[in-house]
Structure formats: structure tokens, C-alpha cells
Write a structure and sequence with these properties.
Number of strands: 26
Largest sheet: 6 strands, antiparallel
Structural class: alpha+beta
């Protein structure tokens, strides 16, 4: 119902600041839509037309959705968009609103589009009015005009229904359009039934009014004696023009319809790409036959519905595929981490009207590392499609592999950037990698074009942690910049590290800093439990909606059951520097005695000295000695010696002189457990001693 010949409105520049009293006298409301700000101002009479109190409307068009059914809203948006696009000065149309009491009534609107000197639309002013009585009168006049007018009305309905179906994204949307818009009711149908062909059967997906369901017809065979089965089997419409004909042709179905006063019916096969995908039935209670023109209109309607239905089915299938692919690319489970509580969440964005875009490249990962450390990853591959998800999956795997190999955080990020650059894809990715030592609370953070992390303290205060970053992955290699600065963050017991993608932060019309401040405030007021906090954050993202995905990872360092009796010490020992070696020995001896482990001090010092000497003798670089106490059911003292050689130590028999070859034998004999870990281009030889007391 579009006003094809609506004339241009002659309105003063300040309209509707001083609306013509005639508008109010004729029960017409006025509106002024500022296209730059998006605000849609309405006067008091317009509020009455929409059955809204002033306190129920906030000036945003989206608020009118409580009164304008979704299919009507789709049609209005399409009409206004087309008018602005094709240079029209005005538009006019009828649409329905759902009143406060749930009833539907017709409304008419007419708008005048004001443009600037470049022709760009800047403002729309116009009127709205209750058109129920007008359309009732029009319906009566059309009924009196004869069959020609009725057929023309049917043609218009087919066109409008087809336009509304263009916005349907699911099978439920198609059914909603057919049942709720000014479609089938204007065709005069009493009820609608629809079924889809699945595995050689017809599954009912829409039935008529309450009480019209026929038991046993949820699923029917194509060879059974039902009208929908027949039209699917023969690919030919069936028009039933009397109750007697209905009872004779379909004796199984007719006894269940006698109470509905059905006088005629039209059953249409829904055919797409030369195959039946379903069937639709229109049941009438006020007609006794179908003219050739009626039949042509209904066949055209069936063809339009079939195309929309197939498109909706394809969309749902691709959405299911995308969702499955997304879940397959993300970690199936998150490992439990000793000393930490972890929560992860993911929300898929939704890009309206775009098949396959309910999937993206956002991901999270948690990587257990040796020595009580853990790596936390959050990232976002450019794009919202299956290719972005595929790239994401590959990136997640290589990041996990590089971290597990023992590379430093900066090296992990640099190698991942090179990998993405060499992947022969045009996508780049932002990423943040945090490596946390849960025993000490030291977190090393590397950022590649991603947003900063946040830390919530045990008392609930939350702050953004600025981290100097490098270029996004894939771009740093392209531009020859593989430097990724490493920032150090102290995570106290009870504090939570939060990593997220920008879908949780960015909001339309607000900059990133404002979004980070809002998120910081939200986290600070949220629950202390990481799972509850993650649920709250993802619920907020869900309520806000939006096209972007959201990935979220929270890592809370647990408080210690008892205070630690020791800490963590580290010493760099350069080759050929006897003073550094002596200082390392002194550090080990003093730390062991200070930590209350004097009864094993000689053993620990001897083993550590042997490990340091071995690293200096058999590599060309320096050694890094780390000494720390590990918390747990039993107190352990751990010694680590890192060097730059990837060659693993091996046991061998002592030489003839008896001077060398005994190192690993001593380590194996004196320690409780020992091992070797890869650390990037080098290795780490470590050992642990069970010592008295609890850490």
C-alpha cells in the first residue's frame, strides 16, 4: 500500500515547530526525523497514533518496534531507503501497528525528504494518521466494485508479500510474513498450512487457526491421500471449489475441517530449482471457486514463497555449518590450571542479510606451560566468513605450538606474524599473548594491534593496562617490523586478568577509549567469581547486539592457603666470568638457607653448580639460573638453568681421568625429579628437591 502519486508537501523550513492546527483537528500527528543524529521527533498527536505515552518513547526509531511488527518495519525501511536513493522528494504508504491491547490497526504516513545542496538527504518531515476507518471504507468500496478490483488487490498483495519476503532470513520469518502481514488476510484466506519435504516425507511447519490441527499430520508420506502430498507428488496445484468436492477427494482430511466452515481451498506445490521443497494450502470460508485470474495469482504467489523458503533454508543450513565450524576451530575444552580460575566465553555476531556471516575469526586459547606457567591468547582475524574462521584455526594451532616449544612471548608473536604473512591470504589478525607465572604472579604481555588487557584487583577495582604494541599479525612481516615489546604485569593473589576482543568494547557512535572506560566500570561492579563475571559480560554483549563477534578470557590467580616461605631469584652467568659464577653459587647457598632448607643445602648447591658448569662448558653463550619455591601439597625447591643451545644433555661414562661424565649421574642421584624443556632456540635443564615445610 504505497502512495504512488503522492505530491510534494509544501512545508515551512521550521516545520513542525509550529504545526498547522488543521493537522490536529484531522487527528494527524507530525514527525521530524533528523537523519544526521538519527533522532525521530514526534508531536503529541503522533504519540496517540502509535498508542504510545510520551514517557514510553525516547526519540529513537528503534523504540517504535514495540508497535510496528517486524515485517511491517522491513517494508517501511525498504520504502524510505528507496525514496532517498532514487531522489524522490516524498513518499507515502499504509502500514499496520500493534496497539497496546494487542489488536492491529492501519496507519498511513507521508514524508517529505529534505536534501542539502549536494542532494544528500538530511531530514525527513511528515505526518502519520490512523487509517483504519479509511481502509475499512476502501475495502467496502472495492467489494462493491466487482471481481476486477478484487483481482487487482490480489496482485498488489502478491507484490507486497514478495517484497516483505525478501527480508526473511529463516523459515520462521517466512511463516511470520505470511501470517502476520497484510498478505493472506487480504487474499481472503481463513487459514494457512505449510509443510516441507524431508527424506521422502512432508513435515508440517505451519498450521491454521487454533483448533484446526489434524491429528497424525505432523509428518505424512508423499504417497498418502492428503492434498499437500498430492501436489508434491504431481507438482500440480489443486483447487477445491466446494465442501462436497473436498469431502470426496480427501476423505481422510475433511472430517477434521467440518467445524471450520471451509468452502474452498487452494493447495500449491512449492517448487525451487525444478524440485518440490514443500507445499502450502490456503483455506477459504467465503468463496465458492477460483477464476483463471485467481489461479494465476495464487500460482505466482506460490512461486515467490518457494524461492523465499529455499533462501531461508539455505541460510539456516549455512548458519548451522558456520556455527559448527566456529565451535570446531575454538578449543573443545579449557584445561584446568593449578593456581588459577579460568572462564572463557564466545558470542557470534550477526550481520543482517548476509549469508555465512554469523561466523568470525575471534578466538581464545589457554596453553599450559612448564614450571607452573600458563599462556593466555586472545585474537581476531579480519573478516566475518568461513575463510576468517579457517585462518583463525591455523593461527591458534601455530601460536600454541610456538608457545609450547618454549619461545619467549615476543618470539611467539613474531613467528606467528611470519606464518600468517606466508599463508597466502589477504587477512591480518590482531592478537594479545600473556604468559603468566602463577607462582610469582609475573605476567609477560605482548600485543599485536589488539586492545589492551584489563586487571581487576581482589578488592574489585579495575584498571586498563597500557601495553606498547607492534603491528597486527601478517602486517609486521610485510612491513619488515617484527619487534614486539614485552610488558610486565604483576598479578596479585585474587586478581583477575581479562582479555577480550573489540566486539565487547566497541559501540556505535562511541570511540574506543569510552568503550574501555565503560567496560572497566562494568567489570569493577561485577561479581568476583570469574564464571559469573564472564556470564555478565557476555549477557551485556548479547543485549547490545551488533555485528561483531566477542571472545573473552578471564584468568584469576588464586589466593594462597598459607603465605609462601620463599620467592623467586634469578642470576645471569656469563661465560668466562668467575665472579658471576661465584655470585650465583652464593645466591643459591644464601637462598636455600634463608628458605629453611639448610639440611639439603649442600646437595642443592652441588647440583646447581654442576648444571651451570655444564651449560657454560657445552654452549657458546651464557646461562640464566632461576631458583624458586613451588606451592603445593609438598614444598619443592626448583632450580632452572637456561642456555642458548638446543642440544640435549646425555648421560655418558666417566672418562679415564675420572673428571668428566659424572654430571647427570649426580643430578639424577641427588634430585627428586629433573628434566629438560625446549625454550625457543635453547633449552632449560631443571630439577626439583622436596624440602621441609609447606609453600
Amino acid at each position: 500500500m504505497v502512495d504512488r502519486g503522492a505530491s510534494a508537501l509544501s512545508l515551512p523550513d521550521d516545520w513542525p515547530a509550529h504545526p498547522d492546527p488543521i493537522l490536529a483537528l484531522n487527528r494527524m500527528g507530525s514527525f521530524d526525523w533528523d537523519l544526521d543524529t538519527g533522532l525521530f521527533h514526534m508531536d503529541a498527536q503522533a504519540h496517540e497514533v502509535f498508542d504510545l505515552r510520551p514517557d514510553e518513547y525516547d526519540g529513537h526509531p528503534a523504540t517504535l518496534a514495540v508497535r510496528v511488527p517486524a515485517p511491517e518495519g522491513y517494508r517501511l525501511d525498504a520504502l524510505v531507503s528507496q525514496a532517498m536513493k532514487d531522489g524522490s522528494e516524498n513518499y507515502g504508504t499504509y502500514f499496520r501497528i500493534r496497539c497496546r491491547d494487542g489488536s492491529l490497526r492501519w496507519t498511513h504516513t507521508q514524508g517529505y525528504i529534505r536534501r542539502d545542496e549536494t542532494g544528500r538527504p538530511r531530514r525527513i518531515v511528515g505526518i502519520v494518521r490512523d487509517a483504519t476507518q479509511e481502509l475499512d471504507d476502501l475495502k467496502a468500496r472495492r467489494e462493491q466494485a466487482g471481481q476486477d478490483a478484487a483481482r487487482q488487490e490480489q496482485t498488489n498483495v502478491v507484490q507486497l508479500t514478495t517484497a516483505a519476503l525478501a527480508y526473511a532470513r529463516s523459515v520462521d520469518d517466512v511463516i511470520e510474513v505470511l501470517k502476520d502481514t497484510h498478505g493472506l488476510t487480504h487474499l481472503g484466506a481463513t487459514s494457512l498450512v505449510m509443510g516441507l519435504v524431508e527424506a521422502g516425507r512432508i513435515r508440517l511447519i505451519a498450521e491454521g487457526p487454533a483448533g484446526s490441527f489434524v491429528p497424525g499430520t505432523d509428518v505424512t508420506g508423499i504417497d498418502e491421500q492428503y492434498p499437500m502430498s498430492e501436489v508434491v507428488r504431481t507438482l500440480t496445484p489443486r483447487f477445491i471449489e466446494s465442501p462436497e468436492e473436498f469431502a470426496e477427494r480427501y476423505p481422510l482430511l475433511w472430517p477434521h475441517l467440518t467445524g471450520l466452515n471451509i468452502t474452498a481451498a487452494a493447495y500449491l506445490p512449492l517448487i525451487a530449482q525444478a524440485r518440490p521443497i514443500g507445499a502450502m494450502g490456503l483455506l477459504y470460508s467465503d468463496r465458492g471457486g477460483f477464476s483463471p485470474e485467481d489461479r494465476n495469482v495464487l500460482v505466482a504467489l506460490g512461486s515467490s514463497i518457494a524461492q523465499s523458503l529455499q533462501r531461508a533454508m539455505f541460510y539456516e543450513q549455512e548458519k548451522d555449518l558456520a556455527s559448527g565450524l566456529q565451535q570446531a576451530m575454538l578449543p573443545r575444552t579449557i584445561p584446568s590450571v593449578r593456581g588459577a580460575d579460568v572462564a572463557v566465553r564466545y558470542r557470534a555476531g550477526s550481520a543482517a542479510g548476509s549469508l555465512g556471516r554469523d561466523i568470525g575469526g575471534d578466538w581464545y586459547d589457554l596453553i599450559p606451560l612448564p614450571g607452573g606457567r600458563v599462556g593466555a591468547v586472545i585474537g581476531d582475524v579480519q573478516g566475518h566468513d568461513t575463510h576468517a574462521a579457517a585462518v583463525m584455526g591455523q593461527l591458534r594451532i601455530v601460536l600454541r605450538a610456538y608457545a609450547a616449544e618454549g619461545h619467549t612471548p615476543a618470539t611467539v608473536m613474531a613467528r606467528a606474524s611470519v606464518f600468517l604473512h606466508e599463508l597466502d591470504t589477504d587477512r591480518f589478525a590482531t592478537c594479545l599473548y600473556a604468559e603468566a607465572d602463577l607462582a610469582t604472579g609475573v605476567v609477560q604481555v605482548v600485543r599485536a594491534g589488539h586492545i589492551d588487557p584489563l586487571v581487576r584487583q581482589a578488592d574489585g577495582t579495575c584498571r586498563r593496562v597500557p601495553v606498547e604494541g607492534g603491528l597486527p599479525l601478517g602486517l609486521s612481516a610485510e612491513f619488515g617490523s617484527l619487534e614486539y615489546p614485552v610488558a610486565t604485569v604483576e598479578l596479585d593473589p585474587g586478581s583477575t586478568l581479562l582479555l577480550c576482543t573489540d566486539g565487547l568494547v566497541e559501540q556505535p557512535g562511541a570511540d574506543l577509549d569510552d568503550g574501555m572506560q565503560a567496560l572497566t566500570a562494568l567489570i569493577g561492579s561485577g561479581p568476583a567469581d570469574v564464571r559469573d563475571l564472564a556470564d555478565k559480560l557476555i549477557d551485556v554483549a548479547e543485549e547490545r547486539g551488533g555485528d561483531d563477534d566477542v571472545a573473552l578470557l578471564l584468568l584469576r590467580r588464586r589466593g594462597l592457603d598459607a603465605p609462601q616461605s620463599g620467592g623467586r631469584l634469578q642470576q645471569h652467568v656469563a661465560p668466562g666470568d668467575p665472579e658471576a659464577l661465584s655470585e650465583a653459587r652464593h645466591m643459591i647457598r644464601a637462598a636455600v638457607r634463608a628458605w629453611g632448607s639448610g639440611d639439603r643445602a649442600d646437595e642443592i648447591e652441588l647440583v646447581a653448580d654442576e648444571m651451570i658448569t655444564n651449560a657454560l662448558m657445552h654452549t657458546e653463550g651464557s646461562a640464566i639460573v632461576t631458583l624458586r619455591v613451588l606451592a603445593g601439597s609438598e614444598r619443592r625447591l626448583r632450580v632452572e638453568v637456561e642456555d642458548s643451545s638446543s642440544a640435549l644433555p646425555r648421560r655418558r661414562e666417566a672418562g679415564e681421568s675420572g673428571v668428566s661424565g659424572r654430571g647427570l649421574l649426580l643430578v639424577d642421584l641427588l634430585t627428586d625429579v629433573w628434566g629438560v624443556e625446549a625454550r625457543g632456540g635453547g633449552k632449560c635443564v631443571w630439577c626439583e628437591f622436596v624440602v621441609p615445610g609447606r609453600a
